[in-house]
Design brief:
Blueprint lengths: L11 E12 L2 E12 L11 E3 L2 E6 L7 H18 L1
Antiparallel strand pairs: 1-2, 3-4
Length: about 80
């Protein structure tokens, strides 16, 4: 009604998943949050990302989730540069 997005407008939902992964021969377990299309089940083998310095730190959101942020930062830096000249 006001042009604002509602939860029904977003085609994805967050789900929690318990994953089991092996790093350096040690099996680890963790609960991660994943994005999945609404109306579908979470992937049976999701891609997870872990910190090599601390394999217990694991997430379901990899570097792709930060790309829009870097793109926006680049546009803002370019605008600031152009504005100052």
């Amino acid at each position: 009604m006001h042009g604002l997005l509602t939860e029904e407008d977003i085609p994805y939902r967050r789900v929690s998943a318990r994953v089991v992964y092996t790093v350096g021969g040690i099996e680890r377990r963790a609960d991660v949050r994943l994005l999945t299309p609404k109306g579908k089940r979470a992937d049976q083998m999701p891609v997870i990302w872990y910190d090599p310095a601390d394999p217990a730190r694991v997430t379901g959101f990899g570097p792709g989730a930060t790309l829009p942020f870097f793109g926006l930062s680049a546009v803002m830096a370019l605008l600031a540069y152009c504005w100052s000249t």
